[in-house]
Amino acid sequence: MTETQSSILGALPADWRSATLLGRIDRGDGPSPVLVKDGIVHDMARVAPTVSALVAQGVTDQAGGEAIGELETIGLSPAADAAVRLLSPIDLQCVKAAGVTFAVSALERVIEEGARGDHARAAEVRTRLESALGGNIRSVVPGSDEAAALKEALIADGLWSQYLEVAIGPDAEIFTKAPVLSTVGWGAEVGVRSDSTWNNPEPEVVLLADANGRAVGATLGNDVNLRDFEGRSALLLGKAKDNNASCSLGPFVRLFDDGFGIDDVRAAEVTLRIEGADGYTLDGYSTMREISRDPETLLAQAMSEHQYPDGLVLFLGTLFAPTQDRDAPGRGFTHKVGDRVTIASARLGTLVNTVTTSKAAAPWSQGIGALMQNLAQRGLLAR
């Protein structure tokens, strides 16, 4: 077994042999949706040419697909020249994200805002805010009378923030994270802006939904975040969130079935490990049980006055907000080129990416037009 084969097996859910996994591969002729059933990889391009179309047709079994081999032996790799290249598991879905859905991350966003994106001031702002809030925000139900009363008290103390509005107010923050087809997958490099000096990974559980807003599966994601840009102004959210290679997903989407469903998402535990080329390590832990809004509530808010005819994925937010110093005391954490980021959850698998700058990452060149042209050339649109 090669190192690459060993790595992908280690990245799969603990019970992967009984799971139905949805993804995308490229065998040299272009991207194809695949289903992994009973450990066998099935190319589903002749059933539906895209992951979006496969989901729309409700396909969850391998009937009509081409069995191309056992997952242990086909040599899945993220390398551009691999015989069977593993890609991000989604294609035409819109990439949406819910922000500030955990109390800890809400406080960190308020700190970013108070520090105006200056990591050197973060410790001072954190101390003042935590002293004023105590543990109150963790138990507050968003949109409740208690939340409204807390809001009034914080306004009176001069401590209210737009981030607390979406953390405990009636409306969740829902934003577009990345353009269609721009996400990267397991093993790929993830990018941070070359002019950012305060940034971090955001390990998250991500729902896959069809055009009707029905959740059909889940995967892991890294919503790479620039704390300095968003901290300077919320109007810089686009620059903080949407950059080349700044959104990763994978390794596969686990489809809902009798053995895995939305309640498993609600109970998911997520771990994070960052290993720097400089010897620095950081470990984090998150549990979906602490999310302030239910995943299906967030999905309903994303769908409330919008349509997504090709479906969508929704990042559900993160509990993780790194404050462990990396360099000088009080400066907190920020990425360095070469960091290895490992996000794991027992029933979803492990997503591994290496950090580079968005300028240095492989350029995104295959958009919707290129995909349609490729599918047409392969005869996959002639139906």
TrEMBL record:
Protein name: Fumarylacetoacetate hydrolase
Keyword presence, Hydrolase: yes
Gene3D superfamilies noted in UniProt: Fumarylacetoacetase-like, C-terminal domain
Keywords annotated in UniProt: Hydrolase, Metal-binding
Signal peptide: none
Domain Fumarylacetoacetase-like C-terminal: 166-355
Annotated family: Belongs to the FAH family.
GO molecular function: hydrolase activity; metal ion binding
Pfam families: FAA_hydrolase
Keyword NAD among UniProt keywords: no
GO biological process: small molecule metabolic process
